[in-house]
User: Which sequence fits this backbone?
């Protein structure tokens, strides 16, 4: 079902304190640095335009369809948690009102339209950098930024000039991946986009109910077997993390948003590809006074997840980042209450 957008967006920026990177969401670190200290780079160098996005935008890559999920009682969580500390358990019955959720992760093409319409500046652009996985950097870049690695997860590099439109630094672009999910977006950026579309971020329960596709007590959106029919059903990591990604599923980084249909709700890439922000706070007793450092739940795992290391590409799995975080494996999709329809 198509939902047309209509809402204007307003976002205010305050202090930009911590960006947290995570290796597939497992383990994290932060940097404490105010926006005033942010490194700057000349975006007119290296042929990079100072405009909002110079990539050609075509509606071919803008998949903004939504699917309707009926209101009712659903089971979420699991009584067989893999990560107890993530509070995956217990399994419990929750109620959701009817809603719509995006069929796909939000694409670079769709996000480009938002930027062009609003001149919105994302957090990574405001701060001047974001976190990039090692395999996506050249040896020269890795050497240049070796001191900017995250100590506890040294395969993440903080790279100047990285943003949604320059995913691996100033010399990179999204021109060849307009149909891939937008990354390097904070929770605030994602929320602003959804508001502009007349939508909102899904709650964690809405996201998980959608992930489960009408099935109960299953690991994945399609069932309990990872590769039924010996086919790949999601974009994750094959090989030994973090140095050997064999890409047996066809992708060593993000994949197009319409690549893996995963359940009976016709939803794509709920698990794998990129983590997805939800509107839900990780800890309801979190600091209400500093929204930028409030942890928000993210779901689904990413192309960097492997069972041996970050087995979080399951519907019940959950992780979090502070709302101002951004990284190359974190995106989102939007939802909409049925009574929001116009
Ligand atoms: Ca993969
Ligand atoms: Ca996903």
Assistant:
């Amino acid at each position: 079902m198509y939902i047309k957008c209509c809402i204007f967006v307003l976002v205010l920026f305050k202090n930009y304190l911590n960006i947290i990177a995570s290796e597939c969401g497992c383990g994290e670190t932060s940097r404490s640095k105010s926006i005033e200290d942010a490194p700057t780079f000349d975006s007119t160098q290296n042929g990079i335009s100072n405009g909002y996005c110079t990539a050609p935008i075509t509606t071919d890559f803008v998949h903004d369809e939504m699917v309707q999920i009926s209101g009712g009682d659903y089971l979420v969580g699991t009584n067989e948690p893999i990560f107890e500390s993530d509070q995956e358990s217990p399994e419990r019955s929750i109620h959701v009102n009817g809603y719509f959720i995006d069929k796909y992760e939000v694409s670079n093409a769709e996000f480009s339209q938002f930027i062009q319409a609003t001149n919105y500046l994302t957090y990574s652009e405001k701060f001047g950098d974001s976190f990039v996985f090692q395999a996506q950097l050249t040896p020269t870049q890795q050497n240049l930024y070796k001191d900017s690695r995250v100590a506890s997860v040294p395969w993440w590099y903080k790279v100047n000039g990285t943003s949604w439109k320059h995913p691996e630094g100033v010399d990179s672009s999204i021109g060849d991946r307009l149909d891939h999910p937008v990354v390097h977006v904070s929770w605030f950026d994602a929320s602003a986009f959804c508001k502009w579309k007349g939508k909102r971020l899904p709650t964690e329960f809405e996201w998980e109910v959608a992930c489960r596709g009408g099935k109960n007590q299953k690991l994945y959106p399609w069932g309990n077997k990872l590769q039924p029919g010996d086919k790949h059903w999601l974009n994750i990591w094959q090989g030994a993390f973090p140095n050997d990604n064999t890409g047996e599923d066809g992708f060593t980084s993000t994949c197009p948003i319409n690549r893996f249909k995963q359940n009976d709700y016709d939803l794509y890439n709920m698990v794998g590809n990129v983590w997805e922000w939800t509107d839900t706070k990780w800890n309801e007793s979190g600091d209400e006074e500093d929204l930028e450092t409030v942890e928000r739940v993210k779901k689904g795992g990413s192309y960097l997840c492997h069972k041996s290391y970050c087995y979080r590409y399951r519907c019940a799995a959950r992780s979090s980042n502070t709302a101002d975080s951004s990284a190359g494996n974190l995106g989102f999709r939007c939802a909409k209450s049925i009574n929001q329809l116009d």
